[in-house]
Amino acid sequence: MDTSGCIFCRIANGQIGAAKVFEDKDVVAFLDIAPVSDGHCLVVPKGHYPTLDQCPPEALARIGQVAVAVARAAIAVTGADGYNLLCNNGRAAGQVIAHAHVHVIPRRLNDGLFDKWPSYQYPAGLIEQLAGKIRQKVKDDLD
Ligand code: AMP
Ligand code: ZN
Predict the structure, then answer these.
(1) Ligand 1 site: residues with CB under 6 angstroms?
(2) pLDDT exceeds cutoff 90 at 1
(3) What pLDDT, on the 0 to 100 scale, is given for residue 2?
(4) Distance CA 8, CA 85 (A)
(5) Does pLDDT of 38 surpass 90?
(6) Above 90 in pLDDT, residue 140?
(7) For the whole prediction, is pTM greater than 0.85?
(8) Which of 25, 31, 65, 91 is the most buried (most CB within 10 A)?
(9) Chain centroid offset of residue 106 CA
(10) Ligand 2 centroid – CA 6 distance (Å)
(11) Each residue of 102-137: pLDDT tens digit?
């Protein structure tokens, strides 16, 4: 696959700069250039996987491990009260850069970010129906 146009591949291979906070052979983490809060970081696999579900299990495990370490560090440094781990997968979910990445977003009490969480009630029976179908797919995937 030609990934030469992918900005996160270019950061991962050092072709363009970033404010890096961690790097090993599999993962790089750096400050988001247009943050939603101070210390907002991105944790990115070095391999070009378009979405998180396309990452191999070892990369996923390392991304998770690095994400929580970056979150602890960003909280300690900024004095934030909490953090969100956020991952947009697919254009419908707001993904702009088609190279998997996890946002680490430091949060402060009453900072007003992401206040709208539009929830609703399932009609009768749908929750059991969805749970049954999804449970089977998860089992097929993990077996
Ligand atoms: P997403 O909507 O999840 O694809 O978000 C992509 C994120 O990448 C956005 O928050 C951008 O601000 C960030 N971003 C884009 N280019 C760069 C860059 N060169 N360095 C750091 N962050 C970037
Ligand atoms: Zn890429």
Answers:
(1) 7, 18, 30, 32-34, 42, 88, 94-97
(2) no
(3) 81
(4) 18
(5) yes
(6) yes
(7) yes
(8) 31
(9) 13
(10) 5
(11) 999 999 999 999 998 899 999 999 999 999 999 999
Contact 26, 5 (CB under 8 A): no
Please give the Cα distance from 23 to 37 (Å, whole number): 22
According to CATH, the superfamily of the domain at 7-118 is HIT-like (3.30.428.10)
Q: What is the DSSP code string of 94-133?
A: T--SSS--EEEEEE-TT--TT------PPPTTHHHHHHHH
The structural domains of the chain, with segments of one domain joined by +, span 7-118
Q: Whose CA is nearest to atom 20 of ligand 1?
A: 33
Which residues, by Cβ under 5 Å, contact ligand 2, an ion? 3, 6, 8-9, 48, 99
Catalytic residue list = 101
Judge whether residue 16 has pLDDT over 90: yes
CA distance 75 to 69: 10
Cα 131 to middle of ligand 1, angstroms: 34
**pLDDT for the residue numbered 3:** 85
Residue 91: partners with Cβ closer than 8 Å, 6 or more residues away: none
Q: Determine which residue's CA is closest to atom 15 belonging to ligand 1.
A: 33
